[in-house]
Specification:
about 475 residues; mainly beta; six-stranded antiparallel sheet; 4 helices; about 30% strand; disordered N terminus
Length: about 475
């Protein structure tokens, strides 16, 4: 049936072309055609790749860039088509008296269309006009690029970034918690919307939302406490070793981060304990000297601790999940500007020297990654945030052979491995501790060359190390087309 419908649609277009070609050009503009009343009865979405290539969408919606077919009478002789007030090109070759094809231009205004013209198709001839108002015109489907904080506390503002996010009117959090009030949208560019995290959200997963351009979803990483590796408040085990004298006192300059270095949430949001990635004791000693690797290091417990076997996450992230679809997240809080020197290194196993970007840590096993939040798009931009912010690092490039680009903010180069492969590689390592630390070496990142300097602050805090699903999701307008 699908093939037959498509053949019929093609025949309609061809017959319209042949019909028009056989007419004298002047006949299109003759008074009989120009005064005949225009009537639109139905609108169809034309998509040869769909299971329904000629889909009746009357009373529903169409998106910019889509091809629609108007069905009715009086179309022959059409001079102008306005969609949301936009003067829309159409090809006369595809116009007959009862049907015409129009592609909705990508420049068609949506939320900024004049109210009297929004969601209207106006058809104009010399002596006839018709306005069809039984079809909503939308931009492309909403998409999400990042979420400001994926593990927020109640009362904190969450910002969702992406495209086509205008006029968001409803947000549904994991577990079905709905938000309809207090949503703020960037209706001019559609690049973000925000909401306030309510009480009582206990499940993790997607945030879904409804706006001017339909339904959208974030990846399933929101409130994903099921993937916590270490939160310094009872989930996972933080361990330290060395760096103390015989009396148990911490030695000057000790790189290891101890439990005594942890602090209560300095943002006052109630997160509990977190890690100052450069402990206050080191700042009090004058900070971190330039050119210094392994300035600090914070580790999970390692081989003898069951929580360091990441197979415990297989119940929430299946073992066969591609590494393209999982990532590592942590939260960062930096209340004062940070730029010019220093960065964070993450180590998936404890076989590295925290030597930093461009070192041997980039080679061989390729199980390290870096966070340099004060370099954006090839430029130094001081980093500061007013509240906790989530950093997401994909696992998509892990375990590759050879050296990965140090400019990359992702792991190694593995595109066809699974979560099982990652877990197996960790469990086979001589030390399967996961670690994070501060490095203050010279480096080149995203094309920017940095000569390190003495680091004397600011204070930088991290918390909530976790494994999360990161697969992007676009909600299909017609889910049946995605079925086998």
């Amino acid at each position: 049936m699908k093939a037959l419908r498509y053949i019929c649609l093609s025949g309609l277009i061809l017959s319209a072309t042949a019909f028009t070609a056989c007419e004298d050009d002047d006949e299109y503009f003759e008074s009989d055609a120009q005064k005949k009343a225009i009537v639109v009865e139905k609108v169809f979405l034309e998509n040869a790749e769909s299971k329904t290539p000629d889909r009746d969408i009357t009373g529903t919606f169409a998106r910019v860039g889509q091809l629609i077919r108007l069905e009715g009478s009086g179309f022959y002789g059409m001079k102008k088509v306005y969609i949301n007030g936009y003067d829309t090109y159409f090809n006369r070759a595809y116009v007959s008296d009862n049907s015409m094809l129009v592609s909705i231009n990508k420049n068609t205004p949506i939320v900024d269309a004049e109210p009297a013209e929004r969601n209207k198709i106006r058809l104009v001839k010399d002596n006839a006009e018709f306005t069809f108002d039984n079809l909503v015109i939308r931009a492309a489907s909403p998409s999400v690029t990042k979420v400001s904080c994926t593990l927020p506390m109640p009362g904190e503002t969450v910002v969702v970034y992406g495209e086509n996010l205008q006029e968001v009117s409803k947000v549904t959090l994991p577990g079905g918690v709905e938000i309809a009030d207090g949503i703020v949208s960037d209706n001019e560019t559609g690049e973000w919307f925000s909401f306030v995290m309510p009480e009582g959200v206990t499940e993790g997963g997607n945030v879904s939302f409804e706006g001017a351009n339909g339904i959208g979803k974030t990846p399933a990483y929101f409130n994903f406490t099921q993937g916590l590796v270490l939160n310094f408040d009872g989930v996972g085990v933080h361990r330290s070793w060395g760096g103390k004298d015989d009396d148990g006192n911490i030695k000057a300059g000790a790189s290891m981060i101890f439990s005594s270095d942890l602090v209560q949430d300095p943002a006052g949001s109630g997160r509990g304990l977190c890690v100052p990635i450069v402990p206050q004791r080191l700042l009090d000693e004058g900070g971190i000297s330039s050119g210094k690797p392994r300035a600090t290091e914070c580790w999970t417990a390692g081989n003898d601790e069951a929580t360091d076997d990441w197979s415990r996450f297989f119940s929430v992230i299946p073992a066969e999940t591609s590494t393209n679809e999982i990532g590592f997240q942590f939260d960062i809080y930096c209340p004062e500007e940070w730029s010019g020197t220093g960065y964070i290194e993450l180590c998936v196993i404890n076989n590295f020297n925290y030597a930093g970007i461009g070192s041997d840590d980039d080679r061989e096993q390729n199980m390290s990654a870096y966070c340099v939040p004060w370099i954006e798009d090839g430029a130094v931009v001081p980093f500061k945030n007013d509240g906790w912010q989530t950093v997401t690092i994909p696992f998509s490039n892990i375990l590759a052979e050879g050296k990965r680009p140090s400019e990359s903010n992702t792991f190694g180069g593995l595109f066809e491995k699974t979560f099982q492969d990652l877990v197996d590689a960790r469990n086979a390592a001589s030390n399967r501790n996961f670690g994070m630390g501060f490095v203050n070496t010279d480096f080149t990142y995203a094309g920017v060359e940095i000569e390190s300097a003495q680091f004397t602050g600011p204070s930088i805090y991290v918390d909530n190390w976790r494994i999360v699903p990161i697969k992007s999701e676009i909600v299909s307008d017609y889910p049946e087309d995605d079925e086998d």
